[in-house]
Amino acid sequence: MQVTREQYRSLVSAALRSPPRHGRSPLVLYMVDMLDLPDSVLPDLPELVSAGSNILVVGNKVDLLPGDSPDYLKRFRKLLLKSCARLGILPAAKGIGDQADRTGRHNLVDVHLISAKTGYGVEELISKLQRSWKCNGDVYLIGTTNSGKSTLFNTLLQSDYCKSKAPEVINRATISPWPGTTLNLLKFPIINPTPDRLFRRQERLKADAEKTEEQLSGDEQKYLKCLKKQGYLIGRVGRTFQQQKSKGIIHFDPDELSFNMEEEPVIPSKKPKERVEFTYNELKDARWFFDTPGIVKENCVLNLLSEKEVKIVLPTHAIVPRTFVLKPGMVLFLGALGRIDYLQGAKSSWFSVVASNLLPVHVTTLEKADGIYQKHAGDTLLKVPTGGEERMREFPPLTAQDITLEGIGIFEAVADIKLSSAGWVAITAHLEDKLQLRAYTPEGTALMIRKPPLLPHIVAIKGKRIKGSVAYRTKKPSPLVENIKSNKPMEKKVPKM
């Protein structure tokens, strides 16, 4: 089931352009998938949001990307700002908070990086949202499909941002790779950040920040260990305010528990759990947090794939970069969804693949490339698409685009060749070496050259060269747990090539 642009516009625009409640305009929490930048930035957002609305941009899935330098998160933030401003979503102004921003068509509140899955940056996001309480009304979470909106909705539902009673009342958002699972707006009531609550929350955050991993409970340590296997940046989202429950009172029916010595005791069946409801007074002045349906990206390779194939292509664990050194006349396949031919160049160049760890990479020669695609597309060697010859008969053919790049040195990639939403290949070449490349993606999908690259120093994240091979051993950087006393920021050393 898919949401058309017309359905999405009708639903979301009606909500965002409705008369302000509580005398305040809504806050738009705009989520962007950092793996798919800039394609995950909606070009029609300004048309959905009324002039003067406040927008907080959230870059999600930073936990899946390895740090290629100590300041890589600052670089992500700047690139996210530029991508939004270039498409007219944010005013091209001097900087966040400048007068030029506040007087523009839309008011930029902030740009914030998070991982909705591991919790990185979420507590800080909650604090920012709470500080905007007096300035904004309801909050609307919008973005493209697969950007992580439902995961963030579920995380905030269990946090200090939501009324403590709400998690037992509100249905959790369904997390699915498919868009349009519902056209109804999921919502929960936002807790009023009174001075007392803010003080208690800050005390809890301060106490949490003083803990080391060894001081966490066994369940917390086990959960952190699991998250470390899945992401590079880990956060801890706690809860300060809990629903009040009666203590020391046991409710039972004495007649159900009584029996004589000749009878077998009968254990009463469990009564259904009483449904928790809000009272009118609890919600009459409430502000609400709404999750909206994700809009389908146009020209996206995921639109061509089955659910099984989407699960292979979309990364769910920390991406481990795979680097290969290619000479002119060699070809790199990313599954059967992308192909890059190295046609001309003076020297060998480095091709670093950033994609799902489940999506195979195959390197061959230009002479063999067409034969390999014909024989193995739809088969286990290239893996996606799956289904053999029958599947490939209905799958669009690959179409080519010629690319010319000039190397800027062996320690820095010159550009990313982004193969729709399947991933990208960062190209690192010798200084002033002119490269002639030809890249392929399925017909009807977007292929783009991203300059500057998202991870310019990615060639440094590799192991030793595998003897007799064009590949380097993969190397996974250490994870970093946010607000854990014993952890120190990761330091990056650039090895010699």
Topology summary:
Layout: H1 5-16, E1 27-33, H2 45-48, E2 54-60, H3 72-86, H4 99-102, E3 107-113, H5 122-131, E4 139-143, H6 149-157, E5 186-189, H7 195-209, H8 218-230, E6 233-234, H9 254-257, H10 280-283, E7 288-291, H11 307-313, E8 322-326, E9 330-334, E10 338-344, E11 349-354, E12 361-365, H12 366-376, H13 388-394, E13 398-406, E14 415-419, E15 424-428, E16 434-442, E17 447-450, E18 480-481
Parallel strand pairs: 1-2, 1-4, 2-3, 4-7, 6-18
Antiparallel strand pairs: 5-7, 8-11, 9-10, 9-12, 10-16, 11-15, 13-16, 14-15, 14-17
How does this structure look, described?
One of its GO terms (biological process) is mitochondrion organization. Residues 139-189 form the G domain. One of its GO terms (molecular function) is GTP binding. Residues 351-451 form the NOA1/YqeH-like C-terminal domain. This is Nitric oxide associated 1. Strand 14 and strand 15 form a beta hairpin. The two termini are 49 Å apart. The protein has helices spanning 5-16, 45-48, 72-86, 99-102, 122-131, 149-157, 195-209, 218-230, 254-257, 280-283, 307-313, 366-376, 388-394; strands at 27-33, 54-60, 107-113, 139-143, 186-189, 233-234, 288-291, 322-326, 330-334, 338-344, 349-354, 361-365, 398-406, 415-419, 424-428, 434-442, 447-450, 480-481. The longest helix is centred in the N-terminal third of the chain and has 15 residues, at 72-86. Strands 3-2-1-4-7-5 form a six-stranded mixed β-sheet. A five-stranded antiparallel β-sheet has the order 8-11-15-14-17, with no helix packed on it. The chain has 497 residues and is α/β, with parallel strands linked by helices. The protein has two domains: 5-209 and 283-301, 3-Layer(aba) Sandwich (Rossmann fold), CATH 3.40.50; 319-475, no CATH class.
